[in-house]
Amino acid sequence: MDERIRKHADVLVDWSARVEAGDNVVLSVGPDAHELAVAVAEKLGERGANLLATYSSGEVTRAYLQAHDDEFDENPSHERALMEETDVYLSIRGGRNTSATADVPGKTRTAHRQARDEIREARYDTRWVSTVHPNRSLAQQANMAYEEYQEFAYDAILRDWESLADEMANMKELLDEGSEVRLVSEGTDLTMSIEGRTAVNSAASVAYDSHNLPSGEVFTAPAATEGEVTFDVPMTLRGDAVRNVQLEFEDGEVVDYDADQGADVIGDILDADEGARRLGELGIGMNRGIDRYTDNILFDEKMGDTVHLALGRAYDACLPEGETGNDSAVHVDMITDVSEESRLEIDGEVVQRDGRFRWNWDDE
Amino acid sequence: MDERIRKHADVLVDWSARVEAGDNVVLSVGPDAHELAVAVAEKLGERGANLLATYSSGEVTRAYLQAHDDEFDENPSHERALMEETDVYLSIRGGRNTSATADVPGKTRTAHRQARDEIREARYDTRWVSTVHPNRSLAQQANMAYEEYQEFAYDAILRDWESLADEMANMKELLDEGSEVRLVSEGTDLTMSIEGRTAVNSAASVAYDSHNLPSGEVFTAPAATEGEVTFDVPMTLRGDAVRNVQLEFEDGEVVDYDADQGADVIGDILDADEGARRLGELGIGMNRGIDRYTDNILFDEKMGDTVHLALGRAYDACLPEGETGNDSAVHVDMITDVSEESRLEIDGEVVQRDGRFRWNWDDE
Fold this sequence. Notes:
By secondary structure, chain A is α+β, with helices and mostly antiparallel strands. Chain A has helices at residues 3-16, 34-47, 58-67, 77-84, 106-114, 117-124, 136-141, 146-157, 161-177, 263-270, 297-300; strands at 24-29, 50-55, 88-93, 127-132, 180-185, 188-193, 200-202, 212-213, 217-220, 223-231, 235-237, 240-242, 245-250, 253-258, 279-285, 306-312, 331-337, 343-346, 349-353, 356-357.
């Protein structure tokens, strides 16, 4: 076995999910994530955890959903009972075709999703972590050769997370103490209030309220957004390419939008509900193991030299106890490159210039 | 998709498991059984059943067991809760190496198995059915070309089950009414009591208390076994080849054993627990779609011209209401060829001679 797969399993089990003896673990395995599943199983055996593996296949899901009449039973009790007794839910994604469910109608997906709200909540109550096994299908999505993609993915995943968490703590502290953020870049001059909000140091570990591996971002929930922003990182949203999306905010809401490509998709998203016109997230990418865009949000939004904003739902972790932030059925991240002629200010002080953080300026 | 895969799914879901709308189904998928899983998922969607797929991989199990210290938690509650809420458990086996767990120590397997007795009981309380997806690894185990093996397997699986069930009813009647069975063949002269026991007409459907697809055997739970038996059908047990196993019984228990090959494995099995030294099953193979040994117990024991016996656990279906039969953590089937110079007697009357049944003698 490729030694990197074992290291990936080590990070997932020990750093990310903090698995201990006696933990009831569900390991959700994609059809082409077998090798990582073997490495994770070995690690779970070492830790004395209790392993149940589930099979997560887009093709199986597609066949089931296509044949169903869309009248789904609410929260089937066998899956709910499983999830309620689960301490740790590890999802290792990796199919053979990232478009495996492309022809399942939206209303079928929505009906299936809505019928499973309690199962989903129970899963979010576990120490859940989602990761991907870098395989050929994901390499293809990223326009990379297989071995090239493996190097890319493991560079992002096999980091010194403890040291990255320490660095990200600087940014969290600045955001927690600050009241207003200003982002300036080409086509962007945006101010947001972060007064009273708590930033998440997303260090790829449940110990940091962080549930993705890789991670490497610090994010918070902004409000009262004013100004304009351009998202120049290319991406695919709902199956459509979008390029250079521009948004204009007044009183926290989008009042105008445009895009070089995919403006229709942006319009649809903004029309989803009231909350879809406001920001739910400001995130600062700090994982320098990620050195290029691959049109996979799990990686792209964590990349160093980028800042991302999400239209829609805010995460509870960023809000004062008991307070609910921006509410919406959508949460759509878009990314802007801040590597050149850019600055991020907190309460008038520059904390990031041309992608470099204040605490690193002396080294350069 | 090969039309035979869809037919296999039809037989499994409708004839074997009698799946209905609202059933909570667990589909246990082997790593190389994906195509059948897709066909079964489609069928389950049509029926309006609730699908949860689990991943059953010998390599994952091996990695977990090898790394574990053998102090397994008793009946982990997440898996037990799942099984207790499950109506139908469908196991579609098919890995890439039938020897995937060959180097897991016997004591580890036994400890793991013993720690899961309640989960196993809960699974046996469902409408469970076990089948295989004919793949290259199984073809190799059977010493067959892949396409040859597919034909072999589908001949066994895609039968007219209703008509086979009718023929098997004859044998069930003889066994139900009889008190003592005697099996005589080369190296075999064994008597067993079947007084008060109920035979199962194993017609590959839960409606017949039959849980394997293919099936095609009639079996009961013998007691008070006396004499000697030779299992001349070659097979692999726990990863090791065994050849010509000989057992000697007194007062229902094995008092001596030997084998041309694999005697150690037999010794390990007999030492598993007290019940492992007694018989749990006498079965008569009646599926003439199976025309050769393939070292796969699911097929071999159903073959016409064979009789098999199992050390260990007896099936409750064979016992009077409320009575428990031979109890054990193991159930290990071994097979003897009765096609030549053999006879099966019930209460002194020959019912099968050289593989042919009494009700067919007139035809020959």
